[in-house]
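Suppose you are handed a protein chain with no further information: no name, no annotation, nothing but its sequence. What can you learn? This example shows the usual starting point.
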Amino acid sequence: MAAIFSATSTAEDVLAGIDMRGRRILVTGVSAGIGVETARVLAAHGAKVVGAARNLEKARDATEQVRAQSRFGGSLELVELDLASLASVRSCADSLLSTRQPFDGIIANAGLMAGPKVKTVDGFEAQFGTNFLGHFVLINRMGSLLNPGGRVVMVSSAGHRRADVDLEDPNFEKSPYSEYVAYGRSKTATILFAVEFDQRYKSHGIRATAVHPGAIQTETVHKLIEALGAGKDAAVAAYDWKTVPQGAATSVWALVAPADVIGARYCEDCHVAQEIDDPSAKIGVRSYALDPKRARSLWAKGEKMVGEHFSVR
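A reasonable first move is to predict its three-dimensional structure. Written in structure tokens, the prediction is:
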């Protein structure tokens, strides 16, 4: 994979000349935006994609193009998954485990962004519960299905720079709620999860990484911008916006890039990001998000919160 990619590269650019036939990939959040494009490109290059979504009817409509453009034996299968319900997460994982069909990669794409303070079915702050805990349970339960050489790609965000995780108050029971701080905590948690998962599974040839897709006006982001009213023009001008195909590129790149390059790292614009703790920096990853000790502590906290202990494979 000698090509050099950038912020303007698309997922199609990344997979140009790469044969994905025989690879089975799980992608969460395939009912809109980046998730649909990720599934489309993978299936168009021969991958067998399992797409997970909360609303299967919406996902079926959104993924018509995925099925239509699948080539070289590529395909799409849909499964129901509500990351805000651990019962749904466990049911989805158990159903996939029962088939005994292995996976070569998981792209944890689904998530919430900057919503009001609400709780998941299990009583967790919704962004932390959905973006981190739901994927935490799903991926750990599926660990035995990952083939050697497999990848776990956590779709995080530059929003992680807003806040480290708070292991003492993950549900904002002691501190005032801020939708963007909550979002930042949840996205830092997804990076830390990748760090610890990579540590636990790399001896089995399985690596994990986290990525920032870039600023994309997806359905969720568009709603947030519209809610700003008079301030929406300034919000739009503040970012270098990517298209959806460009937004899917880094996830796909992390799936096929050399394992030792991306393992336990944070990637943006189809390359590994630098650690930068300057609060004014608009690129890079905060060092707290890659701290192995912090990652182990979060893992233990996650197990306690969901009431389940996870061992390797």
